[in-house]
Backbone:
């Protein structure tokens, strides 16, 4: 019987190996880009910005400085130099106003805010700022309903994307020309990384870190935030 | 051979069933407390406070207002009325200074900060504030190395607790009288909820919400932050 049990386990092991899909091959990340210098990352902050959607990607991208040679410099850009109030009541003084002369911006991050789906979209100053910065940035990232802002600025034309789960229908209705994915943490298409948001807002930022600096850096940053990072365990779309 | 394989599976299945602990029974949450009024929640903010450890519990506790009759009122308390700068560079204006006359505080939350393990512990003004508020609060919560601050203020005496995974050894060495758990997201003992921190900082707050307002409210708050909440899937200790 012992021998049979051993054989049984052996058969199971071999069977598992044989039927395992070539997941790693299919989902293999490209070789990291390893940028030559520090990358500047601007986070848009307006009244009603959601805390988690602002700080989850900020923490991930900021912590790169401890895990790679250059890393990223993160800063906030708001409507003016006075404090804005987050949805949850944090009073945050932006590092820059969008009317200031700004450092060149490699990555533009647009967290969701209370009015991302309505009055913010009529703020032509804000939309113009997002359009002009986003056009020239290497990457644009949205968390939750920040996707509405990117879409309104015309930065998602021809790209696949996602947004906050409960707002998918509204997003599709407002921008019917876009291919909007449901049930995924994030979508990466060309230079746009759009995401579901909430506590999942760490995912798109860790993905960008892995894309730029490689898996070891992404795992190091993640560990510092008590995350066991493996992009293949995250539901996402890569075009 | 086929018979042996069948027997082997049967043995494995029976063995699994027999050794499975009665998890659900052991981990059943008590009936929710359903507080009669709004609860005031103070978040300690000092220079170097970590973003995630501040906002993850703040978002969870703040969002209770949308999912229960009363919910919580969250606010920040810092050393003065000028802005503090978080570890990741956010400039945050505290709602109150710890020298101000404060509303009565039901829950005191201590997020980790850059110097939670060293110079902050020598800040007698801060430790005295934590001690006096924590003594009278219904609950005290620490995220990550905020546990050092609670311990230094004498608020964890006789209680089991935890802290940031990489700082467990240092915590045990600094406070050898404490029972410190490793490999768990959070520990609840008496009125203290201490936690590992990082992206897991949502867990202790959702747990407190479930304890106070019940599972439906906790799941509602969690869903708004794209979390599928089930306390039984979280490694934790409840005394």
Residues:
């Amino acid at each position: 019987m012992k021998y049979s049990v051993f054989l049984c386990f052996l058969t199971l092991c071999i069977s598992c190996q044989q039927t395992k899909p070539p997941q790693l091959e299919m989902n293999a990340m490209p070789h990291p880009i390893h940028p030559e210098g520090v990358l500047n990352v601007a986070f848009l902050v307006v009244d009603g910005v959601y805390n988690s959607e602002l700080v989850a990607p900020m923490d991930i991208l900021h912590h790169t400085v401890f895990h790679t040679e250059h890393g990223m410099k993160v800063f906030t850009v708001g409507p003016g130099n006075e404090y804005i109030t987050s949805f949850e009541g944090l009073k945050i003084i932006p590092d820059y106003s969008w009317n200031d002369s700004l450092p060149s911006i490699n990555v533009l991050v647009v967290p969701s805010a209370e009015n991302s789906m309505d009055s913010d979209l009529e703020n032509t100053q804000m939309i113009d700022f997002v359009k002009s910065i986003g056009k020239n940035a290497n990457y644009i990232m949205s968390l939750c309903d920040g996707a509405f802002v990117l879409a309104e600025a015309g930065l998602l034309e021809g790209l696949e994307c996602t947004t906050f789960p409960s707002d998918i229908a509204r997003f599709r209705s407002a921008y019917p020309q876009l291919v909007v994915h449901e049930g995924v943490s994030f979508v990466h298409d060309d230079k746009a990384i759009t995401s579901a948001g909430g506590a999942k807002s760490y995912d798109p930022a860790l993905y960008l870190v892995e894309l730029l600096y490689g898996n070891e850096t992404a795992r190091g940053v993640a560990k510092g935030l008590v995350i066991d990072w493996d992009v293949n365990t995250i539901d996402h779309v890569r075009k």
Q: What stands out?
A: Residues 217 and 230 of chain B are 12 Å apart (CA to CA). The interface with chain A takes residues 1, 4-5, 7-9, 11, 50-52, 54-56, 58-59, 62-63, 74-76, 83, 88-93, 95, 164-165, 196-200, 202, 224-227 of chain B (CB under 8 Å). Confidence is low (pLDDT under 50) at residues 5-26 of chain B.
